[in-house]
Amino acid sequence: MRWLLSFLLLGLLSVVHAVSSSGNKLLVVLEELADKAKYSKYLADLESRGFKTTIESPKAEKLALFELGERAYEHLLLLPAQSKGLGPNLTPKLLLDFINAGGNILLTLDSAHPTPSGLVSLLLELDIHLPTDRNALVVDHFNFDKLSAAEKHDVVLVPRPDALRPDVKNFFKGDGKGGEVIAFPRGVGQTLGNTSPLLTPILRAPRTAYSYNPKDDVEGVEDPFAVGTQLSLITTMQARNSARFTVIGAAEMLEDAWFDAKVKRSVGMGGVGSDAKEVKTANQAFVKEVTGWTFNEIGVLKVGKIEHHLNEGGAKSNITNPKIYRVKNDVTYNIELSEYSWDHWEPFTPPAGDVVQLEFSMLSPFHRLPLKVATTTKNSTIYTASFKLPDQHGIFNFKVNYKRPFFSNVEEKNTVTVRHFAHDEWPRSWVISGAWPWISGIAVTVTGWVAFVALWLWSKPVPLKLSTSGKKI
Amino acid sequence: MAPKRNAREPTPSSVATTQSSTTAAGSVPIPSKASYKSSSNQSPQQIALGIWQNYLDTTPQRTKLIDVFMAFLVVVGGLQFLYCVIAGNYPFNAFLSGFSATVGQFVLTASLRIQTNAENKADFGEVSPERAFADYVFGSLILHFFCVNFIN
Amino acid sequence: MSDLIEEPFFKGSTGRNTRGVLRLTILCLIAAAAVASRLFSVIRFESIIHEFDPWFNFRATKYLVQHGFYDFWDWFDDRTWHPLGRVTGGTLYPGLMVTSGVIYHALRALTIPVDIRNICVLLAPGFSGLTAYATYLFTNEMTTSPSAGLLAAAFMGIAPGYISRSVAGSYDNEAIAIFLLVFTFFLWIKALKVGSAFWGALCALFYGYMVSAWGGYVFITNLIPLHVFVLVCMGRFSPRVYVAYCTWFAIGTLASMQIPFVGFLPIRSSEHMSALGIFGLLQLVGFVDFIRAGVPSRQFKTLVTGFAVGVFAIALAALVLLTVTGVIAPWTGRFYSLWDTGYAKIHIPIIASVSEHQPTAWPAYFFDLNMLIWLFPAGVYLCFLKLNDEQVFIVVYSILASYFSGVMVRLMLTLTPIVCVSAAMALSYVLDTYLTIKSPAEPTETQVAEAANVSSSKKAGKQEALRSMREPLVGVYSTFSKTSVVSAMTAYLLIFVLHCTWVTSNAYSSPSVVLASRMPDGSQHIIDDYREAYQWLRQNTPEDAKIMSWWDYGYQIGGMADRPTLVDNNTWNNTHIATVGKAMSSREEVSYPIMRQHEVDYVLVVFGGLLGYSGDDINKFLWMVRIAEGIWPDEVKERDFFTDRGEYRVDDGATETMKNSLMYKMSYYNYNSLFPAGQAQDRVRGVKLPDVGPTLNCVEEAFTSENWIIRIYKVKDLDNVGRDHASAASFDRGNKKKKTTKKRGPKVLRVE
Q1: A225 and A87 in one domain?
Q2: Are residues A319 and A270 in the same domain?
Q3: ipTM, two decimals
Q4: CA-to-CA distance for C93 and C213, rounded, in angstroms?
Q5: Whole-model pTM above 0.90?
């Protein structure tokens, strides 16, 4: 049934349009509606991908993230505002509630307009820190655009980001050929707290970049807010409920102007790029990827059906997902995983060097096993693991806890009870050869007893008979 | 053992004593020892034979039957215990039930023997031999049931 | 003697019949009285299961009735001791549940549909009637006076010491176990007197039943061997002893091993070794006896005796050796605490923390037994006067039980039967003496002289000795002395009845699930917070929400709220209980990971501060600390909960550790809001509380009952955006996070 339904739904969706896996209602908050023109290409891109955009001013009365206690939109795009505050409808608390309710937020900052204090405190809650100077921007004297910022060096050119770690999938590498350049004009760099595991930078500043406040007239910067790769240009936070929050340091990246602009990089460290040519920025493609990721168009994992069943002696039991097992049972666990890629679900395969693991745990894991691919369907991969339950009774969990950067969280817990041997499941004593002597001991005793009783009863008349016969004689 | 200890006794008593009987024994230590030794060679056999004869003469046939059965149980129980010592008691419940069946049976049979023994008539005013036998069957059946149940 | 006493009233065979009918009627009336006096709680409150343990028994019985015996036997309970679970079928004494299950099915077969709850509630009173009858039989074996049996039955029926554990609703193992105890003893005495294997086997069967019903069977296991041992030492060995004991031991031990929970204990644990040892000793003695009969040689006999003693010594040494090497389990902690009342406090706080394991206070004896307690020694003294095998039993029993009842409150229960029996013997002796002795019309000189002679030769019975001691005309025979003594005794008996009724209705009939209090106008006010809270849990939480509470409430939560619990009153796993104790007594930041690991959804605490209910968790808190300290001495320290002056305080002067403990916070959270500012008052401890109440970050209040007795907190999930709970809670309260403008020390770089 579920299969049929999901196919049906899938079919319907693909007919309508390519769309995010979590819905298509998008709220764009833009203070001056006139500014809409600046982002026309970007917004057109979004609409072409099936988003139904609502554009509102932060001051609008009817602007509400929640309607009757339910989330009114799936996604929120915050474009930079002129005014200092965002108004009563977009307080940090409401935004946080929006995330907690599963909504995705794409936040853009702009060094030209100071970030509203509400947003600053929201970012602070998420352990994302902005420069203390309101007007600080990222400057790089080695990787700037010669065409537009020859003087100020504030349009930083960055190549496509590498994967965070070798075993993490890179969604933002474009076609992977390299050589593409992203322009990051007049953006605000962020630093990330060290404790939160939920934060991941997508785009980091080059090694030579630093945060600089143009209002400071001092020639050299004594104590910059942050330098080099510590400065994150685009940061993401994926909440535990897989709601996504992305900060793009430079709102100008989304503007039409930078989609089409041609840039020429400066001479970098060690003379890199001395022969640079004018190239078109990769902003449009890159921003599409960042937005697509934020709005659940890529990197979303879905768990299909989870099955576990008894697999005693290779014979599969007909009962799936029983509530109770016995210690030392052989069981098989299956989980179906799919990944969403722009407009369809496809089979999920973890990046090279990574495996999906199954834990069988009570208080602590008793087993931690890699899940192997059993079959692949059109939309999903079925992973499986078979093992013998531990010799410990209790309440256990089949747990798949797959949390990787840029993939939505998979945390599946199926609770089963593992019981002890029932009284009739122990080997009977006649099966155990060691017990035979004692069984025969009992048998001998009992037969001996029966014989004795018989003899006794038989011997009763003997003296009588003797005496009577004696009398007779 | 009895003669041995007697043989040792005279040595200290010969040192200082006023009792007539011991002085008599102590006055002639060496011959007495010899005589005890010679008697010790004979007496156990004699005693055993005497007892045996006494037993054969005085014991009713039924009691003999009981005794045979008890001897049989001792043998069975001893074998089981020996096996346990040699081969280990792996299915412990089996060993327990097997062994205790024999022991219990032995004890019950001993009870029967005591009850039916004419010498103990005074003690068992209310228990006639027939009643004793019925009790015995009752007890044994329960015992067997438990043992078979326990050995699983 | 009985004939002699009864003759004046009833003569001949018709007399015997009348007496029989009378006796039967009296016994029935006693049983009825026994049942009736236990129904106070049902009438006062309702037909409800009481206290703590009965809730588990009730739940187990329901499971048994629902799923049948085999499923019950293999029952793995995944709703207790989360996440360990409990092999319930193998770790309980099934006698009680099986008994009520059998009654239930029997009644249904008779087409009398009775709710299983009512059977459980009324099982204890029902069995108390049977106990009265068993006491009657037991006493009749002890004495020839028929009135003693009836008196003993009556005493047993209404003695508060027994009622305390058998009021309607007190559905505990003791409910049937005391009946079985008395009946097993009766069968034992019978077997011993008759010397019959039949009675011995019956005794063993009931012993088996007793084993299946109550852990206190160990008392029988040790008392009967001790009795036999004393008899042997007194030179009273007879074939009867051999027959009775060996039959009992052989069958009884096997029977007890059929219970899964007991298993191999009878040959493995030290508590059972005395029975085995005596069994061996009897074989030796019996064998020696047999040989002696065959060989009447004096030297031989002494030698064999020496041989027997030697074997006994060797066996004892082997036992010690086996215990040391660990083949036989050493004495358990509970056992040590029987000898040294201070032992448990030092080594096993969990045992000491149970209120019924406390040493008995002296007034409790009078409270529970009233006049019986001073008649008791008299009865024992009478047994000394006429020392037969069975009287030895009374003496041994009374000595042992007196000692044990002094050590543990709950063992008062085993003392009660023997007190009833011997008190009844003493009383009936007095009454027999004064009621039925005919005054001799003319006591002649010769009679007096004769009596004096007889007494000097020390062969006279007590009665004659009494007669001889008193001047016949002014002594026992005078109408005045008769009437005064008899009326005094009657008055005592009446007072006894009054006392028992009073104690039963006032002290032992409270279900403790429901509390009663008096309104100012004298009307009764029911405080039903427990059930209110459990009902809330049942209706508002998911089926598998795990509840953490102190173990006292585990069974009730399981029974009434039907939710899994972490720990309960079956205190088998000290570490698990200590874990809960640690979670309760640590700071929130320490407790939270523990609760996460154990998948706790709700935490339940009992707080009596508003109502003045003294049995609350803050008063039990020190035990939690002690038990936790036993496992984590570095992390939880009892000392930290006392002020510098060694006081245990909850007010302003409380220590920081105390104030930061989860238990303290949960108890007093929001409590200030009930009072005008600065006047929060704890009515149990009678102190004023700090003006600012505690704040809670990782749990949130979910429910508080009407009188604040039960407070339930929900454990928060991890923060969605990765903050710790303190800052998340502070953000929710509207506090802005302080911007870390000035970095102290070197910058912390993020490495990836």
Answers
A1: yes
A2: no
A3: 0.83
A4: 5
A5: no
